[in-house]
Description:
The chain has a single domain (2-168), classed as Protein-Tyrosine Phosphatase, Chain A (Alpha-Beta Complex), CATH 3.90.190.10. Helices cover 57% and strands 4% of the residues. It has helices spanning 7-12, 38-48, 50-65, 81-92, 97-112, 117-120, 129-143, 146-152, 158-168; strands at 2-3, 24-25, 73-74. It has a three-stranded parallel beta sheet, with no helix packed on it. It is globular and about 40 Å long. The model has no long low-confidence stretch (mean pLDDT 91).
Amino acid sequence: VLDFRSKPEIKLRPDSRISGARFYQLYILSNLSSGRNRMPRYYHQLVTGKQDIRAYRSMFKILLRQKQGAVLYHCTYGKDRTGIATMLILSSLGVPKTTIMKNYLASNRYLTASKLPQYKKGHWTPVRSAYLNAAYSAIDQRSGSMKQYLKSEMHLSTTNIQKLRTRYLTK
């Protein structure tokens, strides 16, 4: 279980224990700035911040070590920090950007229909393509391409990418 939340978030809503599972706290920035365009700036930070890059890099190390069983990853709402994690994983697996975006935007339908207490209290905001596009733009500015970002920032070699594809894709 990869938990992208901060210690205060975990303390507020601790994970249920799963027998036999290993739990990893991979803290990813949870503070949002205020003002206009705060969400695109937040998504930019999620792929450029030192701590965030380290956490996502650790996620890939765990995915590469996993030989059997499942990997569950989450944050508080399952859309922003987890959305970036999914974007990075799917990109490493060779999934097209259009498919990744469609998957990401489906969060609005599934999370709106859920019974999340946070949603009921109005703390949940829907995802928008502009947010994920801000992350893609930041990646392109930083590294030139997603492929190069995965290599330079996530430290994924060609061998690592092939191992991920062999392990996590089915025929």
